[in-house]
Amino acid sequence: MKGKRIGSGAAMLAGALAVTGLAFAPSALAVTPTTATVTASCGIFGGGAATLTATQSGTSATLTLSSTAITAPIPLSANSITSTLTMANSTGSARVFSGTVNPAMATGAPITVGPLNGTVASGDSLDFKGGSLKMVVLGITVTCTTSTAQTPGPFVF
């Protein structure tokens, strides 16, 4: 009987500690907005409207760029584009997101790169204007830029 009480008491104490831990756990960080649009010019890939999608988990973040106006000039295999996305940061140094993640694309297919990984700090305010996307495809570097701010506004982490 004594062993049963100790076991029950230990379970209740563990439950109470778990609830207390949840009450004092830091709230999850979230980027806002999660999507933005920009008009980009990308040389041989073309140019036009592009969508940026952002996610955040603590100080880690990802950005994905996709566009039906910016297209693959040749057939591209999956994970064959080395991408570096530099975002201007109104609160400090520019933030860089990089990776080699892309779906397979036929000639003329809409371009998608990402998710590209990077590090952010609380309060970062990132905009594609003032930054760039560099894609290396078969040894050829293609750079995308814009002269207008993204809408509805910068990503705030």
UniProtKB/TrEMBL annotation:
Range of residues in the leader sequence: 1-30
The entry's keywords: Signal
Protein name: Lipoprotein
Organism: Streptomyces vulcanius
